Amino acid sequence: MTAFTYRSGGLHAEAVSLAQVADAVGTPVYCYAGSALAEGYRAFAAAFADQNVGICYALKANSNLAVVGTLARLGAGADVVSEGEMRRALAAGVPPERIVFSGVGKTQAEMKAALTAGIFQLNVESLPELEALSAVAVDLGVVAPVALRVNPDIDAGTHHKIATGRKENKFGIDFDHAREAYALAARLPGVRAVGVAVHIGSQLTSLAPFRAAFKKAAHLVETLRGDGHAIDRLDLGGGLGIVYREETPPSVADYAALVAETTRGLGCRIVLEPGRALVGNAGVLLTRVLYVKAGLHRRFVIVDAAMNDLIRPSLYEAWHGILPVAESAPGDLVEPFDVVGPVCETGDTFAVQRPLAVPQPGDLLAILSAGAYGAVMASTYNTRPLVPEVLVKDDQFAIIRPRLDYAELLALDHVPPWLA
Ligand SMILES: *Cc1c(COP(=O)(O)O)cnc(C)c1O
User: Fold this and answer.
1) For residue 361, how far is its CA from the centre of ligand 1 (angstroms)?
2) Residue 50, exposed/middle/buried by CB under 10 A (0-12, 13-18, 19+)?
3) Cα(202) to centroid(ligand 1), Å
């Protein structure tokens, strides 16, 4: 997380003091470093410069218009999983011909919206979905460019809630039935099967599962061509992991070399859908210490951020680094604390027995590596206002999602006439 460093005793995002952001916007607040977003994308683009690759940023990692816009200006396409995300991608300036629509359950309204926008490709995950898409396309008088997402039955070696490439997962078309699915596609008037898609999971920290999946997908392209299908696109999904703690994910260069090795000679347009790898380490969640409470066996740091703002620790047992915004001195006392939020759930815990320089009420903490699957998963549980977001550029920052006030939050509910 090189964009987040201590300068003159205070943690900064680029040249902006996080204490200043917290004072101006309040806490909790997400803060993203624009330079880190750009660096992440440029590293990917550079590693794949000599391959026929489209980089379609997976919006579900972080779909704020300012984040997507930052990547779009550098040339990124988009991988979207809902009409809402597609609208965000278009609004942020991603051209339709760089948008891929993924997802296991697209509605017919979403298919219509995607076909009307004229996007690059729809990734279809089942035979009923293929038939529905064909019907929608025929109604519109168009032919939908389609990749079938196949399930290669490969263990991604990641947390079970973010593994997607096993037979028992809900995703994709069973690999052994792929040829029948393409045969059906060839008979349907509204779809043209132009590609094969795979995506085996998220936060992968080794190349081996990628290699196995890419090889299977490449082999399938050849088989399908043998069956007479004109397949010229191969979508390899996302999933490249990042460092939260001491993981050693593959470098982008090694990942690129693997893609080259496993797809060589196919002559396919390769689509990649990185999400986390582009944004995960470009953001922190800033939170203020409310209380330090001594329990019988443990001490708790109660902060003003909670699981509704960042759910990864409760949902995936995820580990996030935590740094004090005011730099601690080498001799400061460091003791283990449980860092918890105020929500009425035991799962509302950010860290267990974490060694921290003894915090005081009012201190600011930065929860690291929170750029991906952070703000996008936030809710208003416990009627807590949706967490705001800030984007930094050099020495400036802008609020890219304001905190709703309580009146706005309550106004979302409508009281029926019989209670008025
Ligand atoms: C979630 C998802 C991605 C992005 O995954 P990351 O691990 O964030 O890179 C890409 N493609 C599909 C189909 C997804 O569901």
Assistant:
1) 38
2) exposed
3) 6
pLDDT tens per residue across span 389-401: 999 999 999 999 9
CB 310 within 8 A of CB 372: no
Which one of 229, 259, 277 terminates a domain?
277
Q: For residue range 323-348, what is the model confidence (pLDDT) as tens digits?
A: 999 999 989 999 999 999 999 888 99
What domain range includes position 111? 34-277
Does ligand 1 come within 6 angstroms of the Cβ of 324? no
- Expressed in angstroms and rounded, the spacing between residue 273 Cα and the centre of ligand 1 is 6
Our mutation pick for probing the ligand 1 site, out of 60, 129, 243, 376, counting the most ligand atoms within 8 A of Cβ, is: 60
Residue 289 CB–ligand 1 contact under 6 Å = no
Let me know whether 181 and 324 are in one domain: no
Q: Provide the CATH number for the domain around residue 185.
A: 3.20.20.10
Kindly report, residue by residue over 75-97, the tens digit of the pLDDT: 999 999 999 999 999 999 999 99
DSSP per-residue letters across 372-387 = SSSGGG---GGGPPPP
Residues 299 and 395 in one domain: yes
Residue 395, helix vs strand vs coil:
coil
82 located within any domain: yes
Helix axes 83-91, 108-117, angle to 10 degrees: 20
Q: Is residue 384 part of a domain?
A: yes
Looking up residue 387, the CATH number of its domain turns out to be 2.40.37.10
Please indicate whether residue 273, judged by its CB atom, sits closer than 6 Å to ligand 1. yes
Q: Using the atom order of ligand 1, give the atom closest to the CA of residue 149.
A: 13
